[in-house]
Write a structure and sequence with these properties.
- The structure is a single chain.
- It is built from 5 helices and 8 strands.
- It is α+β, with helices and mostly antiparallel strands.
- Strands 1, 2, 3, 4, 5, 6, 7 and 8 form an 8-stranded mixed sheet that branches.
- A hairpin with a 4-residue loop joins strand 7 and strand 8.
- The radius of gyration is 20 Å and the shape is globular.
Length: 191
């Protein structure tokens, strides 16, 4: 294709870039239910620097529980807007079989300070387990790309739902309720 004017060439380039950006955003995963046939075993928590509000947790020891993994950082406004829902789910469903793990993965160097994370946990009144993931080990294991990001792991240890960013709180809570209502894995399931 040959353009006779630089302005027309420039306009075509801008249109092509806009189309490429639109397609790349449209193709990015928004989360939601993961079909049973596509559900993968959740990766183990990896390279955690410090566990706060909890002794170290291992996903294989949490089989039979529903696990909500929440990637967050204490200076992210979207994470702070999302946090009341995570805290509420921990409060409502913690004694019904839900284990909430906040994976604190820093965006900035000062967020790597354990003291700063502890201060944020106290200030924000977080009671659930927090895994400090300074080296992005767990972030990479989950192939995560977002703050906040929620992953729900069923009683068999498979990731069956995800949500990225704010919103879909009602849908996420309904999924938590449905997962809690499922029977625990039997010994014949290899659990």
């Amino acid at each position: 294709m040959r353009f006779r004017s630089p302005a027309l060439a420039f306009a075509a380039t801008i249109a092509a870039c806009a189309t490429a950006l639109t397609l790349s955003f449209a193709a990015s995963p928004g989360g939601g239910d993961i079909p049973t046939s596509d559900a993968q075993a959740a990766p183990e928590f990896q390279n955690i620097d410090t566990w706060l509000n909890s002794p170290p947790l291992k996903l294989d020891q949490l089989r039979g529980k529903v696990v909500l993994v929440d990637f967050w950082t204490y200076t992210c406004i979207n994470c702070l807007n999302h946090l009341p829902y995570v805290k509420d789910w921990n409060e409502k469903y913690g004694d019904k079989g839900l284990v909430v793990v906040g994976v604190h993965t820093p965006e900035f160097a000062y967020e790597k300070s354990t003291k700063n994370v502890k201060d944020a946990i106290e200030r924000l009144q977080i009671k659930h387990a927090v895994a400090q993931d300074n080296s992005y080990g767990t972030w990479k294991a989950f192939k995560n790309q977002y703050w906040p990001a929620v992953y729900l792991i069923d009683k068999q240890g498979k990731i069956v739902y995800s949500h990225f960013g704010e919103g879909s709180y009602g849908t996420t809570e309904k999924k938590i309720q449905a997962l809690l209502a499922e029977p625990a894995p039997s010994l014949s399931d290899g659990s």
